[in-house]
Amino acid sequence: MGTDFILDELKGLKDRSLMREYRTIEGPQGPHIQIQGTSYLSFCSNNYLGLANHPKIKQAAIEAIHQYGWGTGASRLVSGNMILHEKLEKKIAEFKGTEAALLFPTGYMANMGALCALVTKGDLVIGDKLNHASIVDGCRQSGATFRIYPHNNIHKLESLLQRSAPFRRKLIVTDSVFSMDGDIALLPEIVEIAKRYDAMLMIDDAHATGVFGRQGKGMIEHYGLEGKIDIIMGSLSKAIGSVGGFIAGSNYLIDFLKNKARSFIYTTALPPSLCAASLAGLTLIQEDISLIDRLWSNINYVKFRLSEFIHTIAVESPIVPIVIGPAKDALDLSEILYRRGILIPAIRPPTVPSGTSRLRISLMATHTEEDINRLLDTLKDIGFLTFGNHKTSDQ
Ligand SMILES: *Cc1c(COP(=O)(O)O)cnc(C)c1O
């Protein structure tokens, strides 16, 4: 039978502890979620500020449905472009400190669309080894020559650029916060190098938006790099609590992407209610700095408590990886935690390099100290240190 390979491949995944399955969440997202009628403590959501179920965001979406209906019926360039798309783009540009912004249905599509529009055959795109899969897919799909430097290794990045003369255009692309490791890119150095070699610079601010910078504007605010990064990609699906992706940058960059980004052109516009929800999310962040403060006080508390028993983890963001090693061990540990009422799925290859399977803890502003104590005490109680040597995943 022609489809037998599917069964073989599934069995192979299962045998190597690499089979992926999801659980069904029965109520809204939050620090406590309902699965099969039981409450679990969730430490695996990108809903960093707890906005995914915020009353003001729900209200904004409901009102937008009343006023603008649900669907959009066409792509933006045909007849799907509505007032709320433009309002949201204006708000994103203001938030990111750029001239303009362009919405995409998802962050994945924003990366794909922008990368494939900006570079092609004859060009060079250079990325960090730990970049998100959507960047990797965009780089591959673009047709440009794609080179990778070891994680956060600025010298290797520079040596790749030293050999870049034959290429027409050059683009450096990096996560600003690395999604599976939680550490941050050395952006000031990368900005310098990009300038020196006349390369474009694109950052993926998915995990920094609403998290980094005093006002949550992202890694540019954190480092004070306003105006120094050509292409800023972000997602509305994480701290903003909604769905959607965007590119922020100059007016001419956005005009170019409107004309060239296939994942913008050939897809239906987002429902207006999603835009209303994102607008409300961004407004909440601007009006209530304490949301971000609460997230960081949880991050700092975990950092403090973790230092009691593991010394190799640098906590730099709400993403705290506990690297276990073999996929099966990570899966087993995740299962033990689940039986104790804590949801942290194991992150395994190909999401992370082989031998670095991990539990990726992610924190929310809405976790209480009691929630965090329960997680750490449970980890301690089950003696999870016996599961491996906590290698760091870099290099
Ligand atoms: C989640 C994520 C994306 C994709 O964003 P979506 O809006 O979920 O499609 C892109 N880049 C990084 C670094 C991410 O973590």
From TrEMBL:
Pfam families according to UniProt: Aminotran_1_2
Which is an annotated GO molecular function term of this record? pyridoxal phosphate binding
- In what pathway does it function? Cofactor biosynthesis; biotin biosynthesis
Which residue ranges does the record assign to the Aminotransferase class I/classII large domain? 40-379
- This entry's Enzyme Commission designation comes to 2.3.1.47
Keywords of this protein's UniProt record, alphabetized? Biotin biosynthesis, Pyridoxal phosphate, Transferase
The protein's matches in SUPFAM superfamilies, at most eight in alphabetical order, are given as:
PLP-dependent transferases
NCBIfam families given in the database record = bioF (TIGR00858)
Q: Which residues carry this modification: N6-(pyridoxal phosphate)lysine?
A: 238
Q: Which reaction does it catalyse?
A: 6-carboxyhexanoyl-[ACP] + L-alanine + H(+) = (8S)-8-amino-7-oxononanoate + holo-[ACP] + CO2
One Gene Ontology term of the biological-process aspect is:
biotin biosynthetic process
Query: Which co-factors does it depend on?
Result: pyridoxal 5'-phosphate
Subunit-level organization: Homodimer.
> Mind telling me which InterPro entries this protein's record contains?
Aminotransferase_I/II_large, AON_synthase_class-II, AONS_Archaea/Proteobacteria, PyrdxlP-dep_Trfase, PyrdxlP-dep_Trfase_major, PyrdxlP-dep_Trfase_small
Q: What domain of life is recorded for the organism?
A: Bacteria
Give the protein's recorded name: 8-amino-7-oxononanoate synthase
